[in-house]
Amino acid sequence: MSCFTSKFADELIANAAYIGTPGKGILAADESTGTIGKRLASINVENVESNRRALRELLFTTPGALPCLSGVILFEETLYQKSSNGTPFVEILKSAGVLPGIKVDKGTVELAGTNGETTTQGLDGLGERCKKYYEAGARFAKWRAVLKIGQNEPSELAIHENAYGLARYAVICQENGLVPIVEPEILVDGSHDIHKCAAVTERVLAACYKALSDHHVLLEGTLLKPNMVTPGSESAKVAPEVIAEHTVRALQRTVPAAVPAIVFLSGGQSEEEATRNLNAMNQLKTKKPWFLSFSFGRALQQSTLKTWGGKEENVKKAQEAFLVRCKANSEATLGAYKGDAKLGEGAAESLHVKDYKY
Amino acid sequence: MSAFVGKYADELIKTAKYIATPGKGILAADESTGTIGKRFASINVENIESNRQALRELLFTSPGTFPCLSGVILFEETLYQKTSDGKPFVDLLMESGVIPGIKVDKGVVDLAGTNGETTTQGLDSLGTRCQEYYKAGARFAKWRAVLKIGATEPSELSIQDNAKGLARYAIICQENGLVPIVEPEILTDGSHDIKQCAAVTETVLAAVYKALNEHHVLLEGTLLKPNMVTPGSDSPKVTPEVIADYTVTALRRTVPPAVPGIVFLSGGQSEEEATLNLNAMNKLDVLKPWTLTFSFGRALQQSTLKAWAGKTENVAKAQATFLTRCKANSDATLGKYTGGASGDSAASESLYVKGYKY
Q1: If you measure CA to CA, which chain B residue comes closest to A214?
Q2: Pathway, according to UniProt (chain B) (predicted)?
Q3: How many CB pairs under 8 A join A and B?
Q4: Which helix (H) or strand (E) holds B33?
């Protein structure tokens, strides 16, 4: 085979396919300690371990939410945390049919000689770390590569470096039993139109799949986490149907049918925007040989966070807000979202942060 | 767009889609003067223009065959020939719903420093030639790149050069209104097993689609003409189901869903083998976002040639034989072929020629 034959091949294929179950998607709850600090700060909550633990417990024990999820991406600290009655989070997730995943990259660093473009680090000792995470219960991983659109960006260097970094990460994961989520995020920052975003997205994805082929990655045991194709943050917005059309076309032109599912990132979109766009894609009548779902962080948690405010007495209400978004996105994966989700506080609020750094 | 959208974009998309109509396929009748000479020699027919015209007239006027064909690839001479009562071949074909295509490459030349590997020539003034062919009625083109499997083959040089040649040819065609059939043939010669053929096919196709992306080729306006994935000619044969499984897996891993149809070459397979393999692929219960059909030369004409033997009194018999193969392959594109279309021994005769040169 062009792809290497891992002893985990069957398991990788089964897990990747499971994550692509219609009606389910991924909760990205892998904010690093620094990043979650920013979120907690926005609701005046202290960034201490007990608060980080309390937030994740709130999410993972929301009645009715876990059936909407096939996976949750965790930060390393969370992988080893427990609920207040001592049950490890990975146990709670697994017994509810939700696969635990783990963020394995170590952030971005600048590429010298470019205009602020970056590459992602984290390959050193990655194999060993993956083995440990597998033992701890993780079954998929995530690695975020970041590109931007500008006059001369993304450069060929940035595309190549990020694509080949993703490919190396992917094959190391597969050697160690973890399904790699391949995430080549193209930031929404800029005044470009949707056509430019489409062109860049197609170019970047083509480079990614060439790199994955070169590195003998088993595509049936991977997932893709791309940006949706949208106008730049400083450009006029367009309808969900337009975003759906350009996004799905870009994917048709670059993503082989062997990839079982595509789980979109939400970027700076509001909770409601992200859901509507995903819904429009699933309503589109065109060739889609991969399942289209979500891997949302901010777009699943924003109104939940605001409702919680760090207070014990708000947990129930916050969980209700979280369930609303989970159900809305679950319906969106089936093209069945009617847009009637009770909008929580901040659900329509843009989550765009210029030049967003995790 | 990442893809070049010229003035012919809509027409290219429509033509490519039509050629890929389930139940139809392509007759490759584009043998160069030299190559058809070899065929004629095998049936003791003189290689003169009137005989070449007679053979093609026999094929293009076979009753009942038009519904099985969406296109015919022609050699330049044939594009300008007429039937015996003066009707241009291209008009006859177009009126019958069969799109005329044209072979535009100028054969292969050796790549210095390699072990007999080749690249394909024909790019010089290709744009101008395409314009003339379009005026003459052609609406698609074909360019054959050739690779081989060996201890150190295909080399990276050979893969890159052939992929880039195909991409350059493809975009020039699209600029001039012709749907490019992209043909990266990996010869069956050798003692390798089917896994090796699969690995090489996946590597080659990944390189081809990367090159097409770099050259801004509109994938929706192209077709792919690959080899089936089989054991080498010196290796034991396997069943059609095994060939189908490896072939479709390789295509699912490399060919973007935007490509409307895949039209297989028959290589050295016998008429019956080629049909059975195509049929097995269409019966395979797996998601295939492109139609799988045929672009057969020898595997459609072999027994017809023998039945004709250059004699006018054999024309009706030869045409009936041709109809049998057309119907068999039409059925195979729908997974409906039940085998044994003709008791003719010629249908089972291997058409393998070692080191085959057109």
Answers
A1: B203
A2: Carbohydrate degradation; glycolysis; D-glyceraldehyde 3-phosphate and glycerone phosphate from D-glucose: step 4/4
A3: 88
A4: helix B33-42
Dist. CA A276–CA B49, nearest whole Å:
64
Q: What is the Cα–Cα distance from A246 to B269, expressed in whole angstroms?
A: 41
Nearest-angstrom CA–CA distance, A303 and A10: 39
The rounded distance, in Å, linking the Cα atoms of B170 and B214 is 12
In the residue annotation, A183 being an active-site residue is answered as: yes
Six-digit token string for B316: 């009706």
Burial group, residue A151, by CB count within 10 angstroms (0-12, 13-18, 19+) = exposed
- The residue of chain B nearest to residue A257, with distances taken between CA atoms, is B252
Taking 70 as the threshold, does the pLDDT of residue B358 lie above it? no
Query: What is the Cα–Cα distance from A198 to A248, expressed in whole angstroms?
Result: 10
Using a CB-CB cut-off of 8 Å, the residues of chain A touching B213 are 202-203, 206, 253-254
Cβ–Cβ under 8 Å, residues A1 and A205: no
Structure tokens at A73: 């991406």
pLDDT band, residue A346 (cuts 50/70/90): low
CB A181 within 8 A of CB A141: yes
Residue B346, pLDDT > 90, answer no
Measure the CA–CA gap between A37 and A31, rounded to whole angstroms.
9
**In chain A, where does DSSP find H-type helix?**
9-19, 33-42, 49-60, 76-79, 89-95, 126-135, 156-175, 194-214, 240-252, 271-283, 298-308, 315-332
Judge: A252–B3 Cβ closer than 8 Å, yes or no: no
B202: contact with A, CB 8 A cutoff = yes
3-class DSSP assignment, residue B73 = strand
Distance separating alpha carbons of residues A138 and A142, to the nearest angstrom: 11
Answer yes or no: are the C-beta atoms of A161 and A202 closer than 8 Å.
Answer: no
Tell me the C-alpha distance between A353 and A268, whole Å: 7
User: What are the tens digits of pLDDT across the range B233-288?
Assistant: 999 999 999 999 999 999 999 999 999 999 999 998 999 999 999 999 999 999 99
- Residue B15's nearest CA partner among B139, B133, B137, B102 is B139
Helix (H) or strand (E) holding B34: helix B33-42
Quote the DSSP letter at residue A188: -
Pairwise CB contact (< 8 Å): B202 & A1: yes
Pick from A6-10, A269-273, A287-291: least confident: A6-10
CB within 8 Å of A67: residues ≥ 6 apart: A24, A96, A97
Residue A261 class from Cβ within 10 Å (0-12 exposed, 13-18 middle, 19+ buried)?
buried
Give the per-residue pLDDT at B357: 54
Q: Do B253 and A258 lie within an 8 Å CB cutoff?
A: yes
Instruction: Find where tokens 């006859």 sit.
Output: B92
pTM for the model stands at 0.92
Q: Residue B156: which residues within 8 A CB-CB, separation 6 or more?
A: none
pLDDT of residue B2: 75
Confidence (pLDDT) at B313: 97
CA distance A223 to A221: 7
In the set B24, B103, B164, B225, the catalytic residue is B225
* Contact (Cβ atoms closer than 8 angstroms) between residue A55 and residue A308: yes
Chain A closest-CA separation from residue B207 CA (Å): 7
Is A354 noted as a catalytic residue in this protein? no
Half-sphere exposure in the Cβ direction for B22 (13 Å, CA): 9
For residue B94 the two structure tokens come to: 């177009």
